[in-house]
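User:
Care to share a sequence and structure tokens?

Assistant:
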Amino acid sequence: MDSTPKANKRIAINTFIIYVRMAAVTVIGLFTTRYILQALGVSDYGLYNVVAGLIAMLNIISTAMHTTTRRYINVEMGKTNGNLNKIFNISLLLHIGFGLFVFFLAETIGLYYIYHYLNVEPGKLSDALFVFQISTVISVIGLMNVPYQGLLSAYEKFAQIAIIDFLTALFKVPLVIGLIYYPGNSLRFYAIGMCLMSLISFLLYTYACYKQYKPVVSLKFYKGLSLYKEILVFNNYTALGAFAYIGRSQGATMLINYFFGTIVNGAFAIAYQIENYVILLVNNLSTASEPQITQSYSSGDIKRTFNLAEKISKYSIIIMLIIIFPLNIELEFLLSLWLGQIPDNSLIFCRWILASLFVRSLAAGIPPIIQATGKVKWFQIIGSTLLIIGIPISFILLYYDFPAESVIITFLLLDFGNKISNFWLLNRMIRFDLKHFIRSVYIPIAYISIALSIFAFIIHLIPYTHWGTHILVGCISLLYVIVISYAIGLTKSEKDTIQQKISKK
């Protein structure tokens, strides 16, 4: 395993590329969401998210396969006699099987739920069914895309991934323009457009892989059930984590729909869209480092594995603070700029989502280690149980007339419990040095948080309403969190490295 500065530089370059991709996709997403919301209305926007969420619920096992595929390709790349073509074809065949399974579930359980339990406005059932069928097609196309995405990620072709994702996201612009001027059923038009986006992504990823790695992606059937079984067993435990995450997010959407209807669903969807954009900040840094962590661990370089995990965790928390701190300070102003008129409940949903995101960023470097060890069984069983019990707890709270945001608060507390369980299990399995991790990561973050809390308290004592003042306060908040994070959060060697990079540039 290459542990030289060249490998670390590659992580930094890949991280930068991923963040550029994320920024471009986020800008397009934020720009288009405002007009999609205006064209569809809050109720139809909520309806689309509820129905599309049903497919996500049915797609749990295959969603986990994305992580499994990346992991096995990375491990195979670390072997001197690895057979990537075998891993790819086994993965592709499994995805075809999952696609058929998801289709079966959609046409049975999914349709039963829509006909019997979906809380939809009168006259909208036919639209809900149409969106559901289109979402099923989107899901199956996405399944076929996973092995190709995993291959490019394993080869660290993040620049190509960025270009493909940007081109796919760019398709949203003509989609929104068409949506604004389309005289017919806007909801169905939007669903078809999203299906075309998924198809474009699949074609671009497939083309990129065949152009560069034709021997790897050449279709071939491999006999022998042992590797199929090994991948499926690993994936099934990983699927527990996917079930917990998707089950809680989409399950929450269904609970909100059941107790409050599609209008509150629309507000809830706005908050979760912010979550999806912001959580990419943590996931992207983890994604860029995952090949290095996996290959470091498999080659026996445990010291570098833990060092990378600590750095990724600390940097992820700092990046999250840089985003959510000024965002939270000026959240109401920014929502009004983004959406025009803020749907009821959106503001309180978004504030609790930001708090939840901070908790979820507290150990971003740990999951890659867990995946690298291959010992995922108890991590997934305990962690998934802690997460998924949020659904029955939330149901009980809503049943007894607690407010809708109590769902997010419940998830936040369970997320924190999940982090604790991860550290406890990791320490038992591979003697993870938790004390060193706390000193390196959490002590500096605690000092930063105290400084930010004092600043936020002072800002909220000052009354202001002019839009120019809101922008000024937002900029000052951003600058403040960057300066404080640099001064308190980084070690002397990390500061010296940054200063040297700046001097060279």
Observations:
- The mean pLDDT is 78.
- The chain has 20 helices and no strands.
- The first helix runs from residue 5 to 58.
